[in-house]
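Subject: for your reference before the review

Hello V.,

The reviewers asked for a structural picture of the protein, and I figured it would be easier to keep everything in one thread rather than splitting it across files. Below is the amino acid sequence we used in the manuscript, unchanged from the supplementary table.
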Amino acid sequence: MQVAIAGLGRIGAGMARRLARNGHDVIAWNRHPAVATELAAEAENMGHVAVAESLEALPALLSAPRHVAISVPSGDATGDLIERLAGILSPGDVIVDAGNSNFHDSQTRSASLAARGIDFLDMGVSGGIWGLQVGFCAMVGGKREVFDGFEPAVRSLAPEGGYLYCGPSGAGHYVKMVHNGIEYGLMQAYGEGFDIMHASEFPLDLEAVAKLWNNGSVIRSWLLELAGDAFAKEGNDLAEIKGWVADSGEGRWTVAEAIEHDVPAPIITLSLLQRLRSRRDPDSFSDRVLAALRNEFGGHAVKSSDEGG
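And here is what came back from the structure prediction:
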């Protein structure tokens, strides 16, 4: 099918490449045109990719009903891009928000677009910079019939068994929000465990421990695999990484939702608070592990150990 990708950052570019390699016709647009042009130059090796020279030129390159997936930072950037698209698309077209938007915003945007005859899907994706290689886990909300029309693209984006229609508008981003809250807790537990071993009297090889635990252990996971990769690259002490851990919002929203529904969620809440603490207090080894993991799975920038702030 034809799919436009608006926003070619780490995730958007990976989605565009994966769709093209699976035989879909991709129309690429990016705020910086050179990025889209570079992507199109790979077309001979991965399928058909056309470049929209401007956002306004995009609709003419698509057949109705048009499907435009956007992958830009949540908040104003997403809202502004959706509003621009709403002004140039036609009734029956579909906007797919593949970013990490707040599910309340997705519900509001869906209703606003529906009033103009434009359909909307909220699609939370997990997989980070590895999604191109192994597939993006996709969690989708919106009208079922709209999802059905976009499902061929979702199936190509995801690994086997790696996508789910979650329910009405907002449900996809809601499930992704909780997913990221759980991720906070898992990462914190790994960080603290490696911190304990790093401080012990034994000369433990943390890369070797991480790789050991990923073979038959009950705590094996992809995050643990990435921890082993980080120790292999940065050394046992992660000495060049500052223990300054960012959060991109989903953990905060998960905690707020838990409070709204009187659900005790102490692990996720404390994991979020630990990230906030990392930005005020001297860095701990567990914070260095968290920062390294965020870089491994998402390509998120890390601060050097000699940086301030």
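For the response letter, the relevant points are probably these. The first strand starts at residue 2 and ends at 6. Residues 171-199 form the longest helix (29 residues).

Happy to draft the paragraph if you're swamped.

O.
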